[in-house]
Amino acid sequence: MAEIANLKSIFDLGEFVGDLTIEDDASSDDVSLEGLQQELEECKNDDVVANILSKGTKLREYTKGVENNLRQVELDSIQDYIKESDNLVSLHDQIRECDGILSQMETLLSGFQAEIGSISSDIKILQEKSMDMGLKLKNRKVAESKLAKFVEDIIVPPRMVDIIVDGEVNDEFLRTLEILSKKVKFIEVDPMAKTSKALKDVQPELEKLRQKAVSKVFEFIVQKLYALRKPKTNIQILQQSVLLKYKYVISFLKEHGKEVYQEVRAAYIDTMNKVLSAHFRAYIQALEKLQLDIATSTDLIGVEARSMSLFSSRRETLKNRSAVYALGDRINILKEIDQPALIPHIAEASSAKYPYEVLFRSLHKLLMDTATSEYLFCDDFFGEESIFFDIFAGPFAVIDEHLNAILPNCYDAIGLMLMILITHQHQVNISLWPRFKMVFDLHLSSLRNANVKMLWEDDIHPHYVMRRYAEFTASLIQLNVEHGDGQLELNLERLRMAVDDLLVKLAKMFPKPKQQIGFLINNYDVAIAVLKEAGSDGGKIQMHFEESLKSNTALFVEELLLEHFSDLIKFVKTRASEDPSSPSDRAVTIAEVEPLVKDFANRWKAAIELMHKDVITSFSNFLCGMDILRAALTQLLLYYTRLSDCIKRIPGGSVLNKDLVSISSIMYEIRKYSRTF
């Protein structure tokens, strides 16, 4: 602290200034000391100033010394500059050269800048052109799409002309007929087609084709209708197997040949009216030969009994005169309402005779079956119900004529009452069967037109649609056991085919074959179970599902084994049957089978356990799953037995005996799982 105080006393500028001696100078009068104190205060921290003041050096002397020093430094600098003059000149020249080069670069870069600006402008123009071209391309694609569709709809391909003009009426002709119909409709309703120049060229050709097609299908249908008039023709088979295949022809005539359609319609009505009338007249005549007279006008309670023919001039001796009054076995006719109609020539061959109610029931049964079949055909083929009544005007007249001849001479009260009951039940059936058929067809259409993507669920267990189908089918089969309605059996077969198709489509939605097969197995199994639970004999439908279950089970077993033992199975199928001892490059060797043997030995039990878990989780029916597992294990045993036999035939194959799993061990494992069943 003392030293700091001494320094403060040394640097006390006021005291130094007070002690300074200023020499007289001629110019001293011109010097002003104003502001000196302030400058000294500002410089008190400068080391040089502090040193001067501390030594008491006179300012003028010090200033002269500084000037001398500066002059000497200047002279030294000049000498240094003179020594480096050559270098400086060289540096100057280099700078000038660099300046020139830089000037050139500036000019070049300026040019580049101008060119880049021009390129940028070009790019912008190209971009605008590209956008414009893209828009034009998009518009052209839209126009091309519409134009292509327009051309496709309006053009008349030569192949279509050849088929319509020269081709036979077959499936290809029908497809071509549909295309022609679409084209004719297109030029009639499409506003673009109506205003196009192409219409003038195409319309006359389409009109010629339409006329040719109408004429051709008219001749074809009329020929088929004439076939109905041939004696002993099975009308229903001809309708179902021939005419219905060409029902589109009728739709085409309705739309594009209305006059010709009316001719076809009239021809069919006339043909069927005459054919059915003739059939019923012949059938009635045949039935009259089988008639057993029961009562006459004198067979009354208070009148003496006598034997007279009621329905014809022929007389029959009754073994049991009480049949006139007692019902007896005649009531059984009410239990046979839906039995097939009598076949007259078979009954006549056996010399059998029947009360009139039996003949009456057969006549009504035949009428009902024929009417039902014809009604359904007319609705499907012509799409009209009214045509049915026109056709049956003739058959109804024949039956009315017969009844008008029989009933006035009928005195069998019990027979008449039975006929009333028969008529009542038949009337109900005639009313209900078309409705049932319509509802049944709705179920059928729901399967055929089902949206597979909407119905599909990522679950291989039984689908609810299959359970619905199985319960519905089982119910109808059970109801039909006592009646044996052939028409219902045909419809059930159609329903079965539809659900089969739907199941296959749903199965294909699964990504893996094993899942697809497992799904089918679960659904076939539930159908069989429901049919059996109904207590009915499933017949052909149940047999079909059982066969499908069997075939798919074999496929699933193979997929399940391939998942765990693919190398072994591949070897057994391709190489195990070869003779290892034969001198051949393809002879089976130990090196080839050793990996298979060791791999099987290491993991066969674990693989079987995995298969067991897979089956348990995959199948809803435990017994079905266990049957599949049992089949898989049995098949695995067969594959491994073939592998073992192959190894025995390999020279030196005994070295692998230590790694071979014994057949008894595998059998034990199979029995162990069998005990859990």
From TrEMBL:
Q: Does the keyword Zinc-finger apply?
A: no
Residue intervals passing through the bilayer: none
Q: InterPro entries in the record, alphabetically?
A: Vps52, Vps52_C, Vps52_CC
Q: Which GO terms describe its molecular function?
A: syntaxin binding
Q: Name one GO biological process term.
A: Golgi to vacuole transport
Its annotated compartments are: Golgi apparatus, trans-Golgi network
Q: Which GO terms describe its cellular component?
A: cytosol; GARP complex
Domain of life where this protein originates: Eukaryota
Query: Domain Vps52 C-terminal: where?
Result: 270-557
Give start and end of each Vps52 coiled-coil domain.
Answer: 80-253
Sorted alphabetically, the keyword list is: Golgi apparatus, Protein transport, Transport
Pfam families the record matches = Vps52_C (PF20655), Vps52_CC (PF04129)
Tell me the PANTHER family matching this sequence.
SUPPRESSOR OF ACTIN MUTATIONS 2/VACUOLAR PROTEIN SORTING 52, VACUOLAR PROTEIN SORTING-ASSOCIATED PROTEIN 52 HOMOLOG
Q: Which family does the UniProt entry place this protein in? A: Belongs to the VPS52 family.
Protein name stated in the entry: Vacuolar protein sorting-associated protein 52 A
